[in-house]
Structures are given as structure tokens and as C-alpha cells.
């Protein structure tokens, strides 16, 4: 196989991976609290051992997540919460504590605040947020303090990671280097943070990737045809 085909195949593989990232972003364009991904590529250079230029190929090195805040959609739901600015809600999952910006919360049978997956939302003290059954008019202040009839019940925990975040599936992130409680969080009751995906930009990128893939496919087919003609000519000598 020629070096041109090797390079083209590496490029095609990278484009396919990027297409999957774009498609996943589009699928989550209406998911509350979702943060878009971007494919990150690296260059791999290999010697050809024939006194010619080195062979350069691209490969998928990983993904980077755009953590920019999405717009707020006001729902007036009592337990629909959004974080304005920096910070993340803290939830307890079977895999451990996770950070999220998806604040569509509700109560379970034990009157504990949970997310849409049934994970318990944690308070500023690190325990589950418990809402009394008789509480019918719950108010949540900007610092996350929960009150009922003027009596403070608890406080929703809002934390800030101390290092890089790692996506742990969907709208969940893992803070491997730890996190700390924010001193002055900005919580908005009755609102949800929307996905920060721009469908228009993602569709434009999908078209760009598709055209690049088609161009690469044409190059491979042309190179394959050239090699076939070359071999056919050699046989006739």
C-alpha cells in the first residue's frame, strides 16, 4: 500500500471520529446542562527510510469540552435550578460524586432532592437535601439556601473543581483533583441551563467534514486506480 493511501486512510479515520463527535453534539442540542465536545487531533510523523520526506498522518488525540455557559430557560418549577456563572451542582451517583450543570431536580419517595437519573443532590454540608413533606411553598435563594415559611431547611451545594474536569457521561463530570464549595454561588430558582451546542454551527461543521471525507475517498480511489494501472503496465513488459 502506498504512503499516500496510508495518509489518506488515517485522515478518513479522524474525519469519521469527528463526525461522531458532531453528531453527538447535535443529538444533545436540547439536553439540559449539556456541554459540547470538540475532537482534538495530533500529528504522527513516521520516517519512510527511503531518503524522501517523512510521512505525516493525523490521529485523534482525544476530546475537549466547551464549558461555556448555555442560555437560561425559565420554567417556574420549584426545583428547577440553574447556576449563573461558575460552579456545579454536586450529586451522588453509584460511581461516586459527580458535578453537573443540569438542574432539573425533583423529590423521591423519601422527600430527598434527586436529579432526572435518580441520583441524590448533595447539600453544602455533603449530605442529601431533605425537604419536609409539609413544605408546599419552598423558596431557594441565590446562595442555594432552601427555606419554607421563613425557616431555613438546607442549602444546595454548589462546588468549583480545583483542576480539570473529565466527562463522566452525558451531563456529568468527574473532578479527579477534587473540588471545594463556592463561597458566593449564584443559583436561579425556576430556571434551567440549556445546552451550549449551536445547531447551526454543528450542521455547518458536519457538512465540512462530509465534504472533506468525500475528497479523501476520491483521493484513495484515484491512487488505487493509479497503482492498478502501474501493475498492469509492468505485466505487459
Account of the 3D structure:
By secondary structure, the protein is an alpha+beta fold. The protein folds into 2 domains: 3-67 and 196-236, no CATH class; 72-193, no CATH class. Helix content is 27%, strand content 31%. It contains 2 helices and 18 strands. The protein has helices spanning 3-27, 199-236, and strands spanning 37-46, 55-65, 72-74, 81-83, 88-93, 96-100, 106-107, 113-114, 120-121, 138-140, 145-148, 151-155, 158-161, 166-167, 172-174, 179-181, 187-189, 191-193. Strands 5, 6, 9, 13, 14, 15 and 16 form a 7-stranded antiparallel β-sheet that branches. Strand 10 (138-140) and strand 11 form a beta hairpin. The longest helix is centred in the C-terminal third of the chain and has 38 residues, at 199-236. The two termini are 22 Å apart.
Please outline the helices and strands.
Elements: H1 3-27, E1 37-46, E2 55-65, E3 72-74, E4 81-83, E5 88-93, E6 96-100, E7 106-107, E8 113-114, E9 120-121, E10 138-140, E11 145-148, E12 151-155, E13 158-161, E14 166-167, E15 172-174, E16 179-181, E17 187-189, E18 191-193, H2 199-236
Antiparallel strand pairs: 1-2, 3-18, 4-17, 5-6, 5-9, 5-13, 6-15, 7-8, 10-11, 11-12, 13-16, 14-15
Helix pairs in contact: 1-2
Task: Pick out its properties.
seven-stranded antiparallel β-sheet; three-stranded antiparallel β-sheet; 2 helices; 237 residues; 27% helix
Q: Briefly, what is this?
A:
This protein has 237 residues and is an alpha+beta fold. It starts with a helix and ends with a helix.
Amino acid at each position: 500500500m502506498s504512503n499516500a493511501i496510508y495518509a489518506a486512510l488515517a485522515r478518513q479515520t479522524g474525519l469519521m471520529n469527528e463526525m461522531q463527535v458532531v453528531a453527538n453534539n447535535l443529538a444533545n442540542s436540547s439536553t439540559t446542562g449539556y456541554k459540547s465536545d470538540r475532537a482534538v487531533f495530533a500529528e504522527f510523523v513516521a520516517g519512510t527510510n527511503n531518503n524522501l520526506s517523512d510521512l505525516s498522518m493525523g490521529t485523534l488525540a482525544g476530546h475537549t469540552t466547551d464549558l461555556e455557559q448555555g442560555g437560561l430557560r425559565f420554567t417556574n418549577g420549584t426545583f428547577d435550578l440553574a447556576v449563573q456563572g461558575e460552579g456545579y451542582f454536586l450529586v451522588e451517583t453509584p460511581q461516586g460524586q459527580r458535578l453537573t450543570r443540569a438542574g432539573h431536580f425533583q423529590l423521591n419517595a423519601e422527600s430527598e432532592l434527586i436529579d432526572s437519573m435518580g441520583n441524590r443532590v448533595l447539600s453544602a454540608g455533603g449530605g442529601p437535601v431533605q425537604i419536609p413533606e409539609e413544605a408546599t411553598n419552598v423558596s431557594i435563594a441565590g446562595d442555594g439556601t432552601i427555606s419554607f415559611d421563613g425557616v431555613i431547611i438546607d442549602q444546595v451545594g454548589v462546588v468549583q473543581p480545583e483542576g480539570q474536569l473529565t466527562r463522566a457521561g452525558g451531563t456529568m463530570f468527574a473532578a479527579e483533583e477534587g473540588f471545594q464549595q463556592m463561597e458566593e454561588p449564584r443559583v436561579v430558582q425556576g430556571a434551567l441551563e440549556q445546552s451550549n451546542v449551536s445547531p447551526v454551527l454543528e450542521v455547518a461543521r458536519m457538512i465540512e467534514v462530509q465534504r472533506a471525507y468525500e475528497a479523501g475517498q476520491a483521493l484513495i480511489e484515484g491512487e488505487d486506480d493509479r497503482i492498478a494501472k502501474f501493475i498492469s503496465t509492468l505485466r505487459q513488459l
